[in-house]
Queue: 4 jobs
Job 1
Amino acid sequence: MLKKDIPASLLLILFLSGFGLSSHVAAQAKETPPGESPATTSDQPQLDQEEESGISFKSFHRDLGRNFLGLFSRESVLPFSTGVLGTGVSLELDDNLHDYFRNVDDLGQERRRFPALGDVGEVLANRWFLLAGTGSLILAAHSTSNDRFQDMTYAWTQGYVLNNLLTEVLKQGVRRQRPNGQNSRSFSSGHAANAFTFATIMNHYYGPKAGIPAYSVAGLVAVSRMEKNVHYLSDVVMGATLGYIVGRTVLRGSDRRRRVSWIPITPPGGEGVGLMVSARF
């Protein structure tokens, strides 16, 4: 009974986990005037939206270093502790869920339960797919003056780099064998980490309308890694935890980034010229 009932309920929990993670943003969205980004403030000068075109990566390495240190801030303690607890509980359920997805019939043959889900999830969070998508976002950000899109792209690029760094350190340090025995890079799931980082960033910049679907897709990506028999439940739980923490960290870093511009102005009388300093924090 345990091996049949528990895995089905866990699938439902993972599928709906995105809705829970994004619920805390819904309250903020209600307080935000229609058409205004949650990441902007009402007292921001209107000229600031037109101050520059394109996105600059001149301070990328410095921001990356600050964000790396930010991972160890006190804001990360609660989500990390919750994730570690969830990972510990998941360890007790790894074998049950693994057996559920293996789906061995009476003849001893394994049949994939949801092959389409596993294949789509692998593509969505595939390294090469994400690299191509990130490059496309950067190119688009260079050709637009939309601040929100630029900030989202910058935050995601920072998060993607940090995710891969942390995931690689964990994989090399833990060296847990994958369920299919392919290699010893099971813990933790990089696919889940990247998916939850992207969902967290989308939720911040575009609100629940983008965040809820993004978190739901992230949950499906996490499930797909188990369906493909390349990760255990505890691998994807820790991956999702790290992804969420990385997402929140780079968002705090993006909110602290200062943008200063010098805007030429003409006095009302039409005589002379001056400069106005516009700063956004």
Job 2
Amino acid sequence: MKKIVIFIIFGFLFYYFNTDRKPNISLTPTHNKILKKKFFEEVVKVTQQNRIINEPQKIISRLKTPEKKTDNSKYIPVDSQGSLYIGHVKILKDEKMLISHGDIIVGDYDKYEDYINGERTLKMPPPKLWEDGKIPYVIAEEEGELFEVINKTIEYFNNNTNLKFLPRDFKDVDYIRFEPGKSNCYSRLGRQGGMQRISLSKACTMQNIAHEILHSLGFLHEQNREDRDEYITILWQNIDIDLHLQFKKVKSSLLPLSATKFSFNSIMLYPSDAFSIVEDDYSIVTANGEGYKTTKEILNQIDMKRIELAYKRELNPK
């Protein structure tokens, strides 16, 4: 009997250790594949978040907009209130700004997550003008080359337009603050209410500052005019599709420009090669297909006339 039991045990052990067993875990490989894919997606998501945080000046981020890549409309889409939709923004974390249309401040970086989550909508409301053509201002820097250039530009506006830039009084709630920036020149569009920035790098010239001041007065770029096709041609193929929106037109009713003609000498016109993705080629040409040079003036006569008409004040009233 003992021999039989030993034989059975020996046989069982032999079978156990020598049989090519296939346990029922057929779902394991698929499960692992799903886990790896999920992990990969999480890694990509975290990496993208880190890029937004660590490389803000290099990121152009898509936000919600009704426009599609296949949209062939020549106009910037607007809502029922006349606010312009924004397709893309440049994120400047250090300067706490969201930039669209090349140089217009459209939001605060601190509220970026609210825009992404849909709690806020990035739009540019119809620009508001400054009451009585008076613009209170402060200059953050009280000395240095940038301070001098800002002062000269303000003096130029006071001497050549019907506007009055006045040092801010403590009673002034709405005012412009000229402050130093790390790169380029940026401004809000029209009077925003409260303090609004014009951010200027040390490289900004009087022409650059005048351009940003006109934005703060409520003026968009010249190539956005509704009648621009009579004068210029946009070379869409030479422009990144993500930037097309800032080259589209705006209805004349939303811009205080329609009473004057298109001007190649306006300080608000983009250079002929602005944002071109093709080296040594144009993004905008004349109706005859030629490039053009932008003005070296601070304001030309048409720029001054537009300010006069928009603000409807006698030139430098006594």
Job 3
Amino acid sequence: MKNAVLAVTAIAGIAASANAAWGYKYQFNTGSGWTNAASVDVTGGSVNVSFRLVAFADAGTLSSLALPAGADSASTNQVVAFARYTGSEKFTNFGAAANGDMLNAGMNRGDLTSGGTTYLSSSLSGGSLIVGGTAATSFASQLLLAGALAAYAPASGGTPDLEWVIRSGTIKVGNSTIGAQNRVITFTNNTRTGGGTWYRDALVNGVQDVNTGAPVGNPVNIDGVLTVIPTPGSLALVGLGGLVAARRRRA
């Protein structure tokens, strides 16, 4: 009977891990907290909006790495701390100087401690602001030695940290044109090499293994959407444009 209970518990654990999600949250903050769906009123002029990219994993998400030979039975092989990201993001419908848009100084790697030379770069492409680059030097990471990793690993008495800010900064949303006052800005992935890597809980002879790998499955992107609230003047012009178009059709 005991063996049957253990078998059912193990199957339930595997099922839960199979359904676990991991990936990236693209978020804005206009002063009311972090969210993936925000709005901003530019009636009184341009407005600064904070943004961040968060790497996340559900509790119980497993590493794609196999447990090392001789791993202690307490090892869970669950991801417990973020390790490295290589890629770039984009803000669609944003970045034109004519609109008064700007990426403010101070973009950073969030919780991560090191990175490549192009990770904090920016450029404009096809009406979008690109942050980061497409080369291998566009990465951010952190190095955790076995002792530090133990603080996140359950087999060593630690607690997993499953949300890590890996890019943050502020943008200035302009209102210099009618188009700037009537738009939706999307914060999303531009390029990514692999899915990103995580440290996992793998105890060998009382010491945490520091190899990193991607979690099982594909990453989920939760895009950020920032809606610019139309100014009364821009709405009037849009309405006037529609009226003129209707008259032309009747003519």
Job 4
Amino acid sequence: MFRAVSRRIIRCNPLDNAKYEKDEKKIRFLQKGDVMKLMAISMNDKEAELARLMFIFSCFTGLAISDMENLKYKHIQTAADGQMYIRKERQKTKVEFVVPLHPIAEAIINYYRKELARNEEQQTVKEKGDSLVFQPHCSRSVMGKNLSIVGKACGIRQRLSYHVARHTFGTMSLSAGIPIESIAKMMGHASISSTQVYAQVTDNKISEDMDRLIAKQSAKDKETMEREAFELLDTSICKMEETA
């Protein structure tokens, strides 16, 4: 349209005053039960196991795939109270994020630290801060395929991706009562509006759960009323038989 106007093919853009409705952004995330399924299984294939552990790591830290690929031991620090945390700039936005290291995420890091120590090439070399925590030996497309295999092995119907893992962290954190401002800082969001989508998802989930609870209670109340009605009917019939 703009090109047609500039070439004077048409006098004006007929869509100048058009209003567009923005599609509601829907995010995909896992329920806690599915996360537990992922934690309960282990894969025999080394690369598939790495894909599984990186997914779980993202669920408990909120790190995107690009940040996990570039995560180094120097990014893992310890506070005065002994709490370990990750401090790093996001690869995508260059915004710094700080996220406490969940015990499950810490266990995954310790696992790969031991793997690094077992490597014959690293046995005589002291671990350096520039060493990568995760060292996948395949492309992201292959990692995605491995993640799909992991999901099928766990019986998870939803298609797994590292975006799903990151969204899972956001929704679980909000459900746990963590303030949205803190979640924005942990996830490295440049604007809190990016984090508010999780609040909307959580509110919708609460609403759906409440609707199911109300429906369940209504069904229970209906069943109770019917039972009481039958009991009253039986009682009245018995009295009628006695008087007869």
